Every structure is written in structure tokens, then in C-alpha cells.
Amino acid sequence: APRLVQAQSGNFRIGLILPMTGPFASTGRQVDAGIKAWLRRNGESVAGRRIEILLRDDTGTQPDVTRRLAQELVVRERVKALAGFGLTPLALAAAPIATEAKVPMVVMAAATSVIVQRSPFILRTSFTLPQATAPMAQWAAANGIRNVATLVTDFAPGLDAERAFKNRFTAAGGRIALELRTPLRNPDYAPFLQRVRDAAPEALFIFVPSGEGAALMKQFAERGLAQAGIRVIGTGDVLDDDILNEMGDVTLGAITSHHYSAAHDSAENRAFLESYAQVLPNVRPNFMAVGGFDGMHLIAEALKRTNGNDDGERLVAAAKGLSWTSPRGPITIDANTRDIVQDIYIRRAERRDGQIWNIEFDRIPQVRDEG
Amino acid sequence: MIALGTCHLTRRFGGFTAVDAVSFNLLPGARHALIGPNGAGKTTFVNLLSGALPASEGQVMLFGQDITHLPQHARVRAGLARTFQVNQLFPQFTPLESVTLAIGEREGQGATWWRGARHGAEAARLLDDLHFPEADRTRPTAELPYGRQRLLEIALALALKPRVLLLDEPAAGVPPAESREVMQAIAALPRDVAVLLIEHDMDLVFRFAERITVLAFGAVLADGEPDAIAKDPRVREAYLGTAEVAHG
Amino acid sequence: MRIALHALPWLVAIGAYFAMPEQLPLLSAIAIAALFALSLDLLVGYAGFVTLGHAAFFGLGAYVAGILGQQGWGEPISGLLIAAAVAALLGLVTAPLVLRAGELAGLMVTLGLGLMLYEAANKAAFLTGGADGLQGVEIWPVFGAFRFDLWGRTAYLYSLAVLFVLFLLAQLLVRSPFGLSLRAIRENPKRAAAIGIPVKRRLAAAYVIAAAYAGVAGALLAQTTQFASLDALSFQRSAEGLLMLVLGGLGTLYGALIGAAAFTIAHHTLSEASPQFWQFWLGIALVALALLGRGGLMGALRRMTRR
Amino acid sequence: MADPLLFIENLSAGWGEGLVLEGISLRVEEGQALALLGRNGAGKTTLINTLMGIARQRGGAIRLAGTVLDRLAPERRATLGLGWVPQERAVFRSLTVAENLTAVARPGRWDEKAVYALFPRLAERRRNLGSQLSGGEQQMLAIGRALMLNPRLLLLDEPLEGLAPVIVQGLLFAIQRLVRDEGMAAILIEQHATQILPITDQAVILDRGRIVAKGASSQMLAEPALLERHLGLSLH
Amino acid sequence: MTAFLSVLLDGFASGMLLFVLSVGLSVTLGLMNVVNLAHGAFGMVGGYVCVVLLNRMGVPFPLALAGATVAAGVLGLVLERTLYVRLYRRDHLEQVLFSIGLVFVLGAAVDWFMGARQQLIQLPDWLSGRVEFWGVGLGRYRIFLIAVCGALVAALHLGLVRTRFGAQLRAAVDDGVVARGMGLPVPRLFALTFTLGSALAGLGGALGVEVLGLDPTFPLKYMVYFLIVVAVGGTNTVIGPFVAALLLGIVDVLGKYYVPEVGAFIIYTAMVVLLLARPHGLLKRADA
Ligand SMILES: Nc1ncnc2c1ncn2[C@@H]1O[C@H](COP(=O)(O)OP(=O)(O)OP(=O)(O)O)[C@@H](O)[C@H]1O
Ligand SMILES: Nc1ncnc2c1ncn2[C@@H]1O[C@H](COP(=O)(O)OP(=O)(O)OP(=O)(O)O)[C@@H](O)[C@H]1O
Ligand SMILES: [Mg+2]
Ligand SMILES: [Mg+2]
């Protein structure tokens, strides 16, 4: 009968499960490239063990496939860590495998609050929506916006964002004029935006999955909402660096809050951009990429701390409480929640040197998930 | 008692009336022919009787029971069987399979799911009676020559042991020698089975029929003994032309 | 000789358990996909009724079994039976709608109903967990003795056993007069009605049976993975089931098994070898098969053995 | 000697791998009608379908007015002058009667009006779909459709089937006129030999894929024993 | 009231787009009876060609549209001559197998060359922004869509369905063997029509980039919608799918505006109800 063999030498295998095809393929490509960028920069050997990545495609839509892939990776390929996880349901489906197999599971992209609670072996290097959203609500309230409509995609992260925004914004004395949820599939934003126009709020808060922001922003401009005096605020997903530049002038002036912008001004980020460009030329890294980069860093650091011992419980223990300076800024893996604590930036879309960037102009330090 | 009767049976297609208030009776054991020009509404009439088409107006009675609104299969259960002018067969089934299936349905075993089909022997006997060549019985129907398919068309109806049998041009495409055999098999059906024959082959019609109804433009043009029909000038003009009519 | 041929797939399946102890999760996935394809074969292959919404029954079965397990009734076998019954009930309720419309429209009605159920499950998050999937499913050991383990041993043997039993039942069914009448309806519904076959009722029966089968397949998935998600109800699931069936060959029952195995293995191996571009190679395989082989893999096999 | 209109030599043909016809040799001159007789399954339809390039020709030669047809696609044969009335009629179901005629029309004496004059019933049903015609109406349409091609050689596979006696008379008369007066040639298949022998010039009897008798139609009519032997037909 | 009109017009435009995207399928599936689920893939190719012409080569938008149409048409022609010809007489389900395979291949190929990211275009000025009529606003691009689509419907109806060509095509579909026996050049008819269907798909894909976005999952993402339009509209016509697309577009947009909570339910329910009421298509009566 098969058995988990406790190998302490040889390659350290990481099972990386990502949506490499399907509607969320760009997430997978970014995370994967982020990891490759880290390996290129830091070498493939950690604590005397060669890092070996086994990449699997979960197509982004099938939790049972994700689960099966995780199961196979631990049973057959004997990976010592699971990583990746582009979407919440997929991460949730794999969580029991991590628990049962006792391997660390590093969530690099999925962003709903609950995920980390589903297994004591889960660690997160992406972000959570409440974490990114609350500062936006606070900023809006502090900058004289009293009356906001919200528009989010109707799935778990969207609901997280909606709730977080509402709580924080109303607590700060603001008013939610209208709450709209758009379907995940075939969203035609026109009718929703028409309602926003009818309601005439001072600003529209938006969360949509990355990639969708383009259509939404175009519609926003076409309907003349800006002329009607409605501002756009949102989380960074809307103005994803991946396609921000192609989205064009309609984005200019939009205010978003997020943990990473490719325009972040630091030595770490410049180094990251450089190695990333070697992996995926002509593509700007986005917040998914930095989640992959930092996730790889987290695994490597933990492995260093255990001196190459790949016991899952020891790895997780070693990872807890780690702090370092990431391309996005200073971050910490909370020792209790295993979730990420990081700075959130308020950014404005601006044109610099012919390209459009999210330029950070305000910072809320060390934000925790309040999910 | 009337085997099959209609009362003001009407069928319209859009603005076109294909069957126009036809009242018609078929007696038990009748050997009755229905003739008429092309497009007179004969096939439509059969479709109304068998339930393949719903009637626009009027009634259909089978042995005193109103079957106007019964679905097709219920009419078959009640003893009404038909053949089609254009072959309607199961192309991938062999003739033996097709007939076995029909017999099984007749015996009410079509919903049986826990064992195989029976009645193979009875099917073989029926095909024997119709002189259906042995070699053609186990080939897929689609590969059979046309004439053989016509014969199978009739075999399927006979397998149902109907009390009323509607035949829509059974002899078309069958050589005269064989069609005579077929008609003999039909004539040899039990005397209480009523048969309604639609046919354009006047030899066959006058050999077979004891009574003839002529349909034209959806309505009954004439009805009576073969001799009277053959002499009726209206029928000659609309349908028979100058054809010689054999008397059998 | 014939018997040996019939036993072959099952011997292979049992052999695989011993030969590939590390591939059991994949093998279970194949068994479940095979059962789903089998249920489609009854409906599409035999009765000739194409559906694009069969995942509705699969997903319903999955959620029923999953919710039972979540709410404290984790007994697997009764879970399967209840899932089958609920799926059959949905089949019974929707059959008149689907059959009313006729061929192309009926096909699209199945699609529409499937999509509606998907949306309903998405909205009913309190019951289904919505887009996050159903959490906290606990399934008890089979016969109180065999726990669903990490290696997937129990999962595989359990799925295989269920598949085997239902396959035998399906075989009985298609060889019976009932099965013959379904084929007759597929071949020529007009004549079928004229020899006294209640066409709609038979099709409805086939629809309900296929629904129950699909429900069991879904329940198996939920039980062996202890999880259920919206994707079990998705159009993609329906379409994939059809692909497997056509790939294997319609109207043979074995085609469903072979198609499910071939498709799942090809998908798995190709996507492992090339996580980004596996669809290219899978696509080439499907195109080639469609061009070369009439009657799918079963057709090709038959032609080979006839030589 | 000039080529006849249709020249068939030592033809063998069938469906798929199977062989149905063997050693068929025939010629049809312009302005001639040929009766093709034989029991069910004798291969009459197969012969016509081979001429059309639909059944598979396995050996021998077919020439139409000197042009070798052997490898030509069916549509080429039709444009060279074959006018086909298939046994199953096969009218185009989703086309109206008028469309059935005009879609295949080629210039010549036969146009929509001429067809309607031959079959007044079709004129009445002009806007009906092909699938909504009665059996006899479909037969008329199939014949009319073939005439619309203005062919040199008509191939009529049981054209009388399902037609009312009065229509049959008219049609037989029309075919006779076509052949005698317009110089069209025709091959006619019919189960009732006695109906077409009077209007054809020569006759051929097929049995199990071979020609078993051949001769002038008038002569055949005069030899009931021959017909009876090969067709199982007693004339009275 | 003006809000209602505005939303109604949006629905109208959205239906028009749906029509342009699906009309190619009503040609291949509806007229030719080929279950070409790869329809969306031709649309995707059109979309990518448009993006490349526009963004990388700076071709003006109308020319890029034409380029997309031609490119998809040529691709369709090549594939028809080499592959689709072999499938005409096959089972519908085998056509499904084939065309899904083709979707996978083309999707992966596009991914290889262009990546998996969303592709975006910038419209020329004369097509961006919005005009107001009596207080009812409508985007310029949507007006453009309505115009293009109206022209297409008229052209297709008069030039394809109601002509001798259309009758010959339907004859070829009804019975290809007999049609050839009647002298109709069936292979050529099919090749031409398939090319037309693919070209229309390409045009639809190119027109859709601005509104729907574009990535390699495009063919599968919208497949269901194409099928709905053709099924609800009925085969053998382009007016039917046109009405169906309009109806679905309007119902969908109005539903999202007035009862956003019900989400995608509305369009599916509308489809099922329409199908049950008119199983043979919007314009056909059941027994006709
Ligand atoms: N679905 C339909 N729609 C419109 N007209 C129809 C339809 N079905 C039949 N008809 C018309 O009804 C008339 C009667 O047709 P029917 O088939 O009953 O004739 P018939 O008497 O059987 O003729 P035949 O001897 O040629 O078989 C025909 O003119 C036909 O065109
Ligand atoms: N489409 C086909 N595919 C395969 N075999 C066929 C096909 N059509 C005819 N055959 C076979 O060819 C042989 C000759 O049949 P054919 O149809 O030519 O006879 P026929 O003389 O026209 O008979 P009938 O009087 O019944 O029309 C038969 O054995 C038949 O089974
Ligand atoms: Mg008739
Ligand atoms: Mg014949």
C-alpha cells in the first residue's frame, strides 16, 4: 500500500495548481511568472534542496479537479507544499487535502477572507478583499464623499468587498445610495450603470474580477457618468496592471486602493520588475504576480528555517510570523491567522512617460483582514 | 354496429381544407376501398383516423367509442392499425426485429425491462405467410429493395392483429404478381377484420373492394358498390379517365 | 470468447487498482465520468434524445448527497439512493416540458433548464454555499467499515462497484423490449407510434432513468470528494459528458466507459505535460477522431476486430 | 457509326463493396424510349443510380452522346443532359413547389408554365412546401422537376407509382409526345409492364443484376410467356 | 421615462450585437444544418485580426472590420474544403465532437500567439462617446451597431434566403445526393455558404471586441447565447434569429435594469418560455 515517505533530501517538490487555461488563465500566467521570477533571482536551491515546481492546470472553474490534482500531487508526486489557487472555491476544495496530508498550502491569488480558516496548513500571500476595500471606504469618507453607489460582481469576493465597504463607509458617516451586483457570467454593464446614473451618487465604488474592469470603465465613460459628476473608486482589481495601459484614457483619474502597483517606488520592486521581464517580456506584473513571488519567498524562508526539513507542521510553524520587504512593501504573515498583513495604498491612474500607471499617493500601513 | 365511423371529420391546413366534413362508415369485416384524385385528402383522412394528425373538427368513433382525442398508441391498442403511403420503417432494424417489436407491443410487453424480447417465432410465421424471403429477414431494412420494404410495411400492420386495418397504397412499387399475393393475404384476414384500402391500381381495387368511397377535394364524391362507381360519370371524369376497369 | 470480451473492461479496472495505487483519484474520476456518460448513452444513444442540460441531474445528485452529508446523514449508500430519487423526481417534473418542444427546441429547453438550475443553486447560497461550494460534507465509512482515505482506495472501489451494478442494470434494460422500443423511437418515431408505442411516455421513462443515473454519478462525486460545487451543474459538465460519449461511441454502453476513460486520461496526461497548451493537443485528437472514426472509439474497435 | 445518345457497355456496379449489376450492355438512341423491367431487387434502380453517378460503377463504360461519364460527378451528368426522377421522389422538403422547379431550372422548352400545364394540380399547390404535398403530388413534382432540366435523356424510376389513373393516362401520353415529337429519350422503370410497353420502343428485363431479355417492346407485349417467366406476371 | 427609453435602446443595441454574433451560425446551422459549435472560434479569429490590425498596424477601424471579415471567411473556406466537407453527412453529434475539438485547437493557437489576456481596442473618435436625442442618450458605437446590423439583416434576407441561391442551398441541405443529381453544384454551394457564415462570424467577433472584450475563451463563453438565438429564432430564416436576438437583448437588459437581483434567470426563462410557445421558431406556427 502507498505510504507517505519522509524524505529529507533530494528535491523539494512544490505542487503548483493554477488556472492556466480558461477564463482566469491570466491569473495563472501571472502567478506562475511571479514564481519563476523569484527562482531566477534567488536561484533554485534552498537550504541544500533543489526546488522543483510541478505545475497543474485546474482550468479555473472545476473545484473537483483542483481537489483531485492536489490529492494526486501529495499522494503520487509526494510534493511537500501546495501552492497557487486562483479562486476561492478551488482553494476551499483543496483545503481538506492539505489538512489530511499535513502539507503547507500557500494561497497566492484567491482573496476571500474565510480561506485561511479552512485548514491550519493554509498560508496566504495574496490579499483579502476586506483588507483592500476598507481603506478605500475610509479614504472616500475622509475626502468629502458622502454618498456612494456600489457595484460588485455577484460572487464571494464581490460580496466580501461590498460588505467591507459598506461597514466602513457607513461607520464613517457615509451613505450607500445603491447596491448593485452584476452576474459573474455575461455581464453587460449598461443597465447597471444606467441605474447608477439615475441614482446620481457622488462616487461609484467598483469591484470586478481583473480583466472585467476594462469593459466597465469603457461603459462608464460612454454613458457620460463622469460628466454627470460621478467619480470612480474601487479596489485595484478594476485597474489591473496587466491591462491598465490598453484600457486607455477612460481610466485616468480613477482612484483605487490596493496592496501592489507595478509603479511602486522601491528597490525591491525595481529588482522584481527586472527579473519578471526576463520571464515574461512585454507583460507588466500585477498583484497576482507579486502574490506568486512572495509565496515562493515564504516557502523558501520557511524551508531555510527548518534547515531543509520538509515536515509540513514544522514548515507552517516556521512560516508563521515571518516578515520581510516585498516588492509591494513591508509584509508579515500573521502568526495567529496565517493571513497576510500589509500596507494598502491609495492610487490614482495617471499617464507617465506615455503609459498609464496606478500612482500611489497615500498609504495605510499594516492593514489586517477584518473579514 | 359500425367498426369505424366519422362524423363531419374536418382537417384544415391554414386556409386550405384537406378533409372537408367527411361522414363515413366502415362496417365490421368490410372490404372497403377509398379512391380519389391525387391530393383529394385520402392520406390526410387516414392520418386523422389513426391519430397521426389532430382533427380540426368532427368525430372519429371506433366500435362505438369516441376516439377523436385518443393518442395514436391508444388507438392501436383499441384495434386500429395502418400502413403508410411513404415507407415508415426502422432503417437499422432487421425485418425480424421490427415485427417482433410490433408483436411485443401488441402483447403489452413493451415496458418490460428485465428480460429479453420474445415472439421471434410468431414473427417468423407472419413473414412466412407473406412470402417474405428468408435471406432478407435479417438484413438491415435500409438495405432492402424497395418492394421488400413495402411488404414489411404491411407485415408491421398485420403483426398488430388489428380489427380495423387502414392500408395507404400498399401495392405501389410492388410488382403486380406480388401485390396480388399481398392482397390475398389481406383478403384472408379473419372475416371480422374491417379493411380500408387506398389504392390507385384499379385492377386491385375492383378485385378487392365490396364497397368503394370516392373522395375529391376533401369531400365524398360518391359511395357505393363497385359497379355503380365504375359507371358513375363524375368519378370517371375526376378520377378514372378512360381506364378499362377489370371486374374480379 | 464473448464473455471474456465483456469481462475485459472490468478486469482492467480491477487490475488498475493494484497496478496503479497512486492513480486512484484519477481512476475514481474516470469511473464517475463513465457513469455520467452511461446515463447519457441511455438517453442519447438508445432513445435518440439529445440533451445539453444533463448536468442538472448530476449536480442535483451531488448537492443532495453533499447536503445530506453536511447535515449529519453521511451514510453513503442511502445517500446515493436518495440522490437518485431526487434526480429522478426532477426528471419526472421536467420531462413533459422537454418532450413538448420537439427536437431542436427540446434540446435547447434542456439547456435552459440546466442553466436555470445553475443560477438557482448560485442564488441559494444558504443551502448550497453558492459560488464557494458546499463546505463541511462528512461521509461515513462505506458499510461502516471503509473510510474514504487520502489515497482514494475506498473512493475508487466504491465508485467502481456502483458503476458495475448500474452497468449491468443498463445492459438488462437496453436488451429488453423496453430498450428495443427506445431504439425504435430513435429510428422512426412516426412508425413507433403507429405500432402502438406510447412514444412520449417511453421517452419520459428513459429521461427519468437517465436522470436517476446521472444523480447517482453526481452523488458519487460529492461523496468521494466530500465536496459539491456549482460546476457540477454547469453546461460544461453536460457538454463534456456528451463529448466522452460521442468519443467512445453511442448506443453501445461500452462506448460510454471507453470514452470516459480515454477523454479523462487524455485530458489529464496532456494537461500535465503542457498546462498551458494541452487544449491544442486534445483538440487535435478530437478533430482527428471525428474525421477518422465513425461510431467513435467503439466503432474503430469493431472495425479492427472484424478484420 | 455515330455514337448513340446513351451507350453502356459491360457495366458492373453496386453499393459499397457489394456488386449488384454485371455485364450490362445497352444503347438508347435519341428519340427512343426504353422500358426497364424486372422483379423487386433486380437492380433497376441501381442501374439508373449508376448512370447518375450515385451507385458505384465498378467496371465497363457509360457514354452520353460520346462523352464518357464514368468518373463524372452527378451534377456534371445532370448538366450534360440526364433528367432523373428518383424512385423515392425525393422532392426538396423545405422548398415550395415553385422553388423545387425553379431551383434546378435550365433553359429550354420546359419551364414552370409548361410543367403546370402538364400537372394543373401543382399550380394549385404552388406555394406549398415539398413536405406538405400528397404522395401523388410529390410524384408529379419530381417529374416536373426533372423536366425543368430540359434533359436529353429522362430517367424515370417508377414514375406512375401513386398517380391517379387519369393522371397516368395524361403522363403516358405526354412522355410519348416528348419522345416522338421533341426527340427526348427516356428510360422508364415500371412494375406494370403492360402500361409502358405500348409507349416504349425497346425493352430490357433485368434479373439478379443481369439482362435476361432484350427486344422491341411490341414484340415483348406479344410474348406473354416471356414476361410471365421473368416477371411472374400473368397479363390477364 | 427617458431612463426607460434609454435602457430600451441599450437592449436594442445589445440584441443587435447578439444578432451579428449569431447570424453566421444561423447560416451554417440554420441553413446548412451543420452543428458548427466552432462558430465562436471564427468570431474569435475575426476579433483578434481586428485587434492586431488596429493596435499593431494602425489600420483604420472600418478597414480592420473588413480585414477581420475576410480573414475569418478565408479561414472558414480553407477549413471547409479540407475538413468540414467530410462531416456534412455525419451525425450531428460527430459534428459536435469535431467542432469542439476545433475550438480547443484555435483557442490554444490564439493563446500561443497572443496570450491569455483580455484584448482591448480604442475606437476612433467618431464612434466613441454619446449623443442625446430629446434627453435620451445612446452611445455612438451602439448606433453604429444598429446600423450595421440592420443592413446585414436586409442583405441576408434578400440576398440569401429569398433567392434562387437560397433555394438551391436549401435543396442541397434537404438531400445533397438528389440535389447533385439535379445538376446543383452542391460542394460549391456549401463552400460559399460556409465561407459566408465564417465571414459573418468574423465580423461579429470584431464588432464585439469593444463591448464584450476578447480572450481565448470567447468561443465557449458565448456559445450558449449563439445557440439560444438560433434555436429561438428558428432555422431556414434570418429574420427569425434577428427577432429572437432583439427580444432576448431587450428582455435581458430591461431585466438587469429593473430587477437586477434575479440575474441571468430572466434570459433563460425567456428562452424556455419562447421555445415552449414556439418550438419551431418565432415566425413559424407549429403545424404549418
Ligand atoms: N401539412 C400540410 N400543410 C398544407 N397542406 C397539406 C399538408 N399536408 C397535406 N396537405 C395538402 O392536403 C391535400 C391532401 O393531401 P393527402 O396527402 O391527403 O392527399 P391524398 O388524397 O392522399 O393524395 P395521393 O393520392 O396523392 O396520395 C394535398 O393537396 C396536400 O398538399
Ligand atoms: N442504397 C443502397 N445501399 C445498399 N444496397 C442497396 C441500396 N439500394 C439497393 N441496394 C441493393 O441492391 C440490390 C438491387 O436493388 P434495386 O433497388 O436496384 O432493385 P430494383 O430492381 O430497383 O427493385 P424495386 O423494384 O424494389 O425498386 C438489392 O439487393 C438491394 O438490397
Ligand atoms: Mg395519399
Ligand atoms: Mg427500384
From TrEMBL, chain B:
Coiled coil: none annotated. GO terms for molecular function: ATP binding; ATP hydrolysis activity. It comes from Falsiroseomonas algicola. SMART domains: AAA (SM00382). It comes from the Bacteria. This is ABC transporter ATP-binding protein. GO terms for cellular component: plasma membrane. Pfam families: ABC_tran, BCA_ABC_TP_C. InterPro entries: AAA+_ATPase, ABC_AA/LPS_Transport, ABC_transporter-like_ATP-bd, BCA_ABC_TP_C, P-loop_NTPase. Residues 4-242 form the ABC transporter domain. Keywords: ATP-binding, Nucleotide-binding, Transport.
Automatic annotation (TrEMBL), chain C:
Signal peptide: none annotated. It comes from the Bacteria. The chain crosses the membrane at residues 43-65, 77-98, 104-121, 155-174, 204-222, 242-266, 278-301. The keyword Membrane applies. It is a multi-pass membrane protein. One of its GO terms (molecular function) is branched-chain amino acid transmembrane transporter activity. InterPro entries: ABC_transp_permease, LivM-like. Keywords: Cell membrane, Membrane, Transmembrane, Transmembrane helix. One of its GO terms (cellular component) is plasma membrane. CDD domains: TM_PBP1_LivM_like (cd06581). Its main location: membrane. It is found in: Cell membrane. PANTHER family: ABC TRANSPORTER ATP-BINDING PROTEIN, HIGH-AFFINITY BRANCHED-CHAIN AMINO ACID TRANSPORT SYSTEM PERMEASE. This is Branched-chain amino acid ABC transporter permease.
TrEMBL record, chain D:
The keyword Amino-acid biosynthesis does not apply. Residues 6-233 form the ABC transporter domain. One of its GO terms (biological process) is L-amino acid transport. One of its GO terms (molecular function) is ATP hydrolysis activity. Keywords: Amino-acid transport, ATP-binding, Nucleotide-binding, Transport. Pfam families: ABC_tran. It comes from the Bacteria. PROSITE patterns: ABC_TRANSPORTER_1, ABC_TRANSPORTER_2. PANTHER family: ABC TRANSPORTER ATP-BINDING PROTEIN, HIGH-AFFINITY BRANCHED-CHAIN AMINO ACID TRANSPORT ATP-BINDING PROTEIN LIVF. Belongs to the ABC transporter superfamily. This is ABC transporter ATP-binding protein. It comes from Falsiroseomonas algicola. The lineage of its organism: Bacteria, Pseudomonadati, Pseudomonadota, Alphaproteobacteria, Acetobacterales.
UniProtKB/TrEMBL annotation, chain E:
GO terms for biological process: amino acid transport. It is a multi-pass membrane protein. Its main location: membrane. It comes from the Bacteria. GO terms for cellular component: plasma membrane. It is found in: Cell membrane. The chain crosses the membrane at residues 7-31, 37-54, 61-84, 96-114, 143-160, 189-212, 224-251, 257-277. GO terms for molecular function: transmembrane transporter activity. Keywords: Amino-acid transport, Cell membrane, Membrane, Transmembrane, Transmembrane helix, Transport. Belongs to the binding-protein-dependent transport system permease family. LivHM subfamily. PANTHER family: ABC TRANSPORTER ATP-BINDING PROTEIN (PTHR11795:SF442), BRANCHED-CHAIN AMINO ACID TRANSPORT SYSTEM PERMEASE PROTEIN LIVH (PTHR11795). This is Branched-chain amino acid ABC transporter permease. It comes from Falsiroseomonas algicola.
